[in-house]
Amino acid sequence: MRTNHPGRGRLTIPAAALLALLAAGCGSTTAAPGALKPPSRAATAAVPTVPADFPCPGETPGPTPNITLKVEVSASAAPGDHYAENHGFKVPIPLHGQSRCDGLAAAQRVKGALEPLRARHDFTKEGTRGLLTGLGYPAGRVDVQELGAAGVAFTAGDGRLCLSGTVGSGATTVESFAGYPDGTGCEPPRGGH
Predict the structure, then answer these.
(1) pLDDT over 70 at 155, yes or no
(2) Which of 21, 151, 157, 181 could lock 162 by a disulfide, CB 3.0 to 4.6 Å apart?
(3) Distance (Å, rounded) from C-alpha 32 to C-alpha 159?
């Protein structure tokens, strides 16, 4: 709109019209740079989901324990060092859903079977290996390492799930998991990417 004021030849827009124009956005639906857009239907369908966990038989309902990366960083590690990120291939894959319940049951069964070995201080590779193969774990999928006077550490798998743990004078520990990210089975990987 042009005003008829002498000496002013400029275009002016009433304030109400300017506000209406800004509020309307000129009919554009383009988001501002950096604005979040909802994922497309195809992108949403491609996102993998984690099976729901539920209380397993004999388990007290509560939060599902998380497996956390236990990596010791040396005192000489520099800020920005990607040690934990670069060693993620050593973190066991957690079990979920019914597999988690199966893993907890297997861990309890193995722990109960190993307790007599601990009670009589039988911390030998042969005794632990014999017990695990006697429980049905294939000999080729059982590995036992001596820890000296501290006891033994073991891993065992049956093709569905993996178990790892220790037998020592203080305690017997057994944990279940689904293997490792780099497909190395139940054995902790020696190297990675």
Answers:
(1) yes
(2) 157
(3) 51
